[in-house]
Amino acid sequence: MIKGANVSLPSLSPDIGSVIVSLSWTSAEGDGDADVSVLLLDANGKVRSQEDFFFYNNQASPDGTVQLLGKTPTDSGSEDRINLDLAAMPSEVERIVVAASRYGGARFGDLDDLRVALADSVGESIIGFSITDATVESAFLFGELYRRSEEWKFRAVGQGYETGLAGLATDFGIDVDDAEESDEQLASETTPQVPEPRVAADAAPDAPEAPAPVPVVAPEVPVPARRPRTAKKKVILPKAAKKSLAESDAWRMARLFPASSLKSDHEREVRATSILLSVMAQVPEFGRRLAAAFGAPAGRMETFTEVSLPHGDTPKRPDGVIRVERAGKLWTALVEAKTNGNPLKGEQVQDYMDIAAKRGYEAVITLSNDVALEGSPLVSVKIDGRRKNKVALWHLSWAEVTYQAQMLIRHEGVGNAAHAWVLQELLHYLQHENSGCHGFQNMGPAWVPVRNGIDAETLCQGDERAVEVVESWERLIRQVCLRLGGEAGVKVLPVQRTKRGSDPQSRRAALADGLCEDGRLHAEIRMDSTVGTLAITADLRTSKLRTSIDIPAPEQGYPLSWAKRLVRQLGEAPADLHVETLVANQGGGPRGTLEKLRPEPGDLLPKDGSPITGFRLSLLKGMGSTRGNAESGFIRSIDDAVDRFHSSVIAHLERRPARRE
Prior knowledge:
By secondary structure, this protein is an alpha+beta fold.
């Protein structure tokens, strides 16, 4: 679409009862940071109440018609996704505004490939709109959905604000909190000036249907920076349990979902599926969070296991069924689950796709330890284009289930204490060594021959086995992001430095050729509020793992004070931490271990007085060799290296200005 154009959604797809809106961007530094927000407006172009504003501190409406699903990794970066249940949207809501904002002085002009896209309820993309004229704006109205004659339409807006989230929210009738804030809170957003919305000059003929932005009169004196009011308090459980009343450590606490007696893969699969589906039905926040990502409406959810469905001569028994009722209509998904690293079977999934199509069901959901990648499906299925009913195929990893449970009970909160306790029991079960739900845990059959080929210098570029290892590495890194994000309560995503629209297979083939040439696997991870990106390098030739982060030099002060402050911040860091000074136009400068730099921080200063651009902190450790998740395995060594670097180094560094929660 072009800026200002609009289109009727029913003309593009019959499946627009609910839609997924995706906002995306890229940057030279990686993924960039921005927060999405949604506003529900009445006929006057204003919110009905403060509860009609959804952002990072208010992520879902009570009726489930709006749900912010968070960021999802894509091949060219990430997408921030929103589920909108249009069929159930209250009749007084005339417009749905989709926007995003940046903080800490960041501007949208620093990002590339700004884009908003819509997908229908079966996951098929129906609309795309790219913004190409962003400059100094710290908030952007990407697009809006609006009603006309009982029909939903979408308009590509592309309207910028220089006043950030507070300016955008105020424009649509949101009251902001004028309470005095600390300097750190004020740093998270620049002082608002005058909202000057940029209106499209090339609007399509249908554009006048929506109300034009209301001009705002400039105040004579700038007002203090303000933040929108936050949502109501929810129940959050502490990570550390209370002191046990047991007489000895040998006493085992009674659990709602015991895992110690499981003996076979079939038992693990049946029990894990039943536990997950039952918790989804009983804890609304959790069930809606998972199901909304698959296009399910918000409504009364019931779940079933081991259901027998007719299919030819032999009935089929999917592992589970999810049904959601909304306004007298049913949404149904079949579930096929695997545990303990067992692979999904293409024939089984194909059967369930055929059954779903014949019975008018909406989706098939696969669930396993594996992580799905774009351009590399876990199973291949054939879609009969002659069928009227379209069935969506979605994949969910057990690591994603664990992440969502952690985010709800540790960081975001749920409605009541009983639901929080049930989620706690689910989390304990998923993390139990006997559950089989530990996520991606095997680098695949190509790992050993590729590692041996690199060691013997016999691995040639173009070897398909190297591509398989690169795909496994990408799956592992995405799982590391989920685990870190769940523990820290922040967005953690892999950095992809490729242009949007690039071919995933070509990108992986190029990375595989690089692996054959230098024997290294490399990845970068961006953590929300962290000063830099966490880099992970696995050198298969030396069997060493390097974790590192580059932190920029402060904008004010003197180099010696920078070095002293950095050493003080790293007071609890390991003595073998490597610290390297980054010098303008020269790359690396003076370096040394923290043990030697603690008494003499001045050793980090260049002898010739060259300007310092930052510092690089690195830790080295041995690399596991086996392909699995055992103590000696490569996957375990990656997890240990990342955990050690995060807890002993990153956690002690100064944070970027935090958003007010």
